[in-house]
Design a protein that fits this description.
The chain has 208 residues and is of the alpha/beta class. The chain is built from 5 helices and 10 strands; from the N terminus they run E-H-E-E-H-E-H-E-E-E-H-E-E-E-H. Helices cover 23% and strands 23% of the residues. Strands 1-2-3-4-5-6-7-8 form an 8-stranded parallel β-barrel. Strands 9-10 form a two-stranded antiparallel ribbon.
Length: 208
């Protein structure tokens, strides 16, 4: 199971978290976010894929950040079209397309994105574009008909670990590729609690 930590902001904290060697480390490039990233990313291991998170940004802005920060993955958290994803996919960067899940979700919308991204990411529908700290009903994923691997996100913390273990004993988890965490491990927006993250990562490695 891959592990992604999102919403990094402060250099020293980035170094401490990166030392854990998560598979993905997310940096948000969205002015309206409390976790909006500016400045320089410290030198971190190539094991960890630097991931840029964007919300309805222009192709030019995204590619500028890819070059500036040597991003290896792009997470599209807005209303980006399949054509937009396709154009970015041609740049040989991993594309993660986000879909917000509420009380119900129409999985048919995924069809158009099937061939234009590498992964899907399911997050909780809320007032913010991510970082709402709320878990959606994972049982909805029993209706997932695609074979594309996906990231499971949305309010996942240490308190949800038993639920995760139960989820991974269901067919709905078959194509779950990674767990994505953010706000439940924060001291403040963008500043992560390293001890809690280590505990969670160790539990993941033991197997959910």
């Amino acid at each position: 199971m891959k592990f992604k930590i999102c919403g990094m902001k402060y250099p020293e904290n980035i170094m401490d978290v990166a030392a854990m060697q998560p598979d993905y480390l997310g940096f948000i490039f969205y002015k309206k976010s409390k976790r909006n990233f500016e400045g320089a990313i410290p030198n971190i291991s190539d094991h960890t894929k630097r991931t840029g998170v964007f919300v309805n940004a222009s192709k030019e802005f995204i590619l500028e950040k890819v070059k500036q920060y040597d991003l290896k993955a792009i997470q599209l958290h807005g209303d980006e079209s399949p054509q937009f994803c396709k154009e970015l996919l041609n740049n040989l960067i991993e594309i993660i397309k986000v879909f917000s899940v509420g009380e119900k979700f129409d999985f048919d919308v995924l069809q158009e994105y099937q061939d234009v991204c590498n992964y899907f990411l399911f997050d909780t529908k809320g007032k913010n574009k991510g970082g709402n700290g709320i878990v959606f009903n994972w049982k909805l994923l029993k209706n997932y008909t695609s074979k594309k691997p996906y990231f499971l996100s949305g309010g996942i913390g240490l308190e949800e670990f038993n639920e995760l273990k139960e989820f991974f004993n269901t067919k709905a988890s078959k194509y779950c590729y990674a767990i994505d965490v953010n706000s439940k491990f924060e001291i403040e927006p963008g500043l992560k609690d390293v001890k809690k993250l280590k505990k969670f990562k160790q539990s993941l490695e033991k197997g959910v």
